[in-house]
Amino acid sequence: MRTRWWNNIRWRLALGSIIAALLSAGLLALTAMLVIGYYYNVDQQSRLSALAQEKAQSVSIVYEHNRALVEDNSDTSFGNRLKKIANNPSVFLMTSIKEVYSVSSRRNEPDPEHLYLFLNAQGKLVYPLAFPRGNAFGVIQSLLSVSDTARMSTDQTTLKNAIASAVKGHGQGGVFGRQTPVDSSLPFFVEPITVSNHTTRTSQIVGVVIVTPFSNAVPGFVSTVGIAVLIATPIIAFLVAMLAMFYAQTITRPLAKLTAASKVIASGDYDAQVSVDGPGELGELAHTFNEMAIQLKKDVDELHRQEAWRRELIMNITHDLATPLTAIAGLGEALVDGINQSHEDYEATGRIIVRETLRLRRLVQDLHVMAKVEAGALQPKKKNVRLAALVDETFAVLVTEFERHQVEPINTIPYSFPTIQADPDMLTRILSNLCNNSLHYTPAGGTITITASQHANLAIIAVTDSGSGIPEEALPRIFERFYRADNARQSKTGGSGLGLSIVQAIVSVHGGKVWAENIPGAGARVSFTMPLSSIEDQPTIVTNRLSQSQVYPGA
């Protein structure tokens, strides 16, 4: 299945990083501009407050000086002019303001950056009545020109409230206009003009002064910061995207290897391995994947092996069942047809039928035991068993087979040999299978000898024949189920192929080991171990120490 680029982890991580970088840079820029704008407005308000207080104080001093000239009946032309306007507070205030500006002009101290508006105590504009520069004058003049107080805008209300507060003697600042991180709002400050009344010794507010910048232009450093942020944001986003793609490769490259290996395994090749170096989760994932592939290969091989065993089982059972059934059917037909009517013929036919029937029974028993082994249901019922007596019983059961093959059984185990912990029936089955196996390969006149020796708390039991031995290439495989060294599978020498597998399974559930070897000049020997009974259960202990190589020569 082809993955589209927008579903690719590398591109999704890169795009996600770009979006995150843009959002982060934008949020950072917004925060910076808000902070800069806030502190810039605070600084402007502080400066406007200082300028308003200075201008109000200057006007107040001149105002008091002019009023002193009027009270002293100064006979100068300026004093006479002041007497004429003394009864008009607004004109008297305006004259004082003009005198302040006249002095500032002579001292070259004009303020070209700020607009000063003077109102009388009634809140009416007295100076200047017109101004040619900037937009601040027009803005404030329009705000002051309110005919319907019920429909005032927010800015008009803000300015009116500040003027009303200043008329009462409290200076107040404010902002009107649009406010943004790089705002175009117009700050202002209203300061009362207070003069002293020497007669009543009280203070009198004769007017207020409004100070505001001519222009709402953003300061240069604020604009520079904004431009820098706008330029830096895409650069940061690009660098973050490159870095994200680089690191994404450290994730996608191992994942691509895992995907390729998974496809190889899906195609049926279970030898696929992933080479991912480095610590961390991806390295652990690769290691786990390799272990999974190894285990999967083992499981598949085991399934193939089981399938091969199944096919071999069907083939072997078909062959092993066909031979005795054919013999029994043929002999039965002969009996029915009346052929060979003599007593000796009947006896011979009966013996053959019994032998073939016993062969079928052994095959069924072998299959039953192997089924229990596969199901894990082979549970021994251990007892104290005396080996010498059990071997004699086994020989007694097989005496007919020994006579038919003309082979002599020999039991060399003394009656005083220590008892062992084993299931008697299963142990009998082991000895019976080993004897039957040896009978197939021992020539007439030969012997089958059973011996036992003690090593520590184990009994080592061996069955030795005088045959030709086991081919060297067959020794490692003789305990495999259905394996027989006789490839021709002749009825004379071939068994079911399960006998030694059953021996190995029974020995294993008893906690022992089994092995096979060739003895020079003697034939083949199959040995196995069984645990001895505890000391208190032993009537007599016979010690026969062996070396490790003698105990497990085939191990």
Structure description:
Helices cover 54% and strands 15% of the residues. The chain has 555 residues and is of the alpha+beta class. A 5-stranded antiparallel β-sheet has the order 2-1-5-4-3, sandwiched between helices. A 5-stranded mixed β-sheet has the order 7-9-10-12-11. Helix 9 crosses helix 11 (424-441). The protein is rod-shaped, with a radius of gyration of 59 Å. It is found in: Membrane.
Features:
single chain; 555 residues; alpha+beta; 5-stranded antiparallel beta sheet; 5-stranded mixed beta sheet; 13 helices; 12 strands; rod-shaped
Structure in a nutshell:
54% of the residues lie in helices and 15% in strands.
Q: Strand order, biggest sheet?
A: 2-1-5-4-3
- Chain-averaged pLDDT: 78
Oligomer: single chain
Helix and strand content put the structural class at alpha+beta
Largest sheet: 5 strands, antiparallel
Rg, Å, rounded: 59 Å
Strand content: 5-15%
Kindly state the number of beta strands. Answer: 12
What fraction, in percent, of the residue positions are helical? Answer: 40-55%
N- and C-termini, Cα separation: 52 Å
The total count of helices amounts to 13
Element pattern in H and E? HHHEEHHEEEHHHEHHEEHEEHEEH
Gross morphology is rod-shaped
Stretches with pLDDT under 50, minimum 5 residues: 487-494, 540-555
InterPro entries: BphY/WalK/GraS-like, HAMP_dom, HATPase_C_sf, HATPase_dom, His_kinase_dom, HisK_dim/P_dom, HisK_dim/P_sf, Sig_transdc_His_kin-like_C
Organism: Dictyobacter formicarum
Pfam family, one: HisKA
Domain HAMP: 249-301
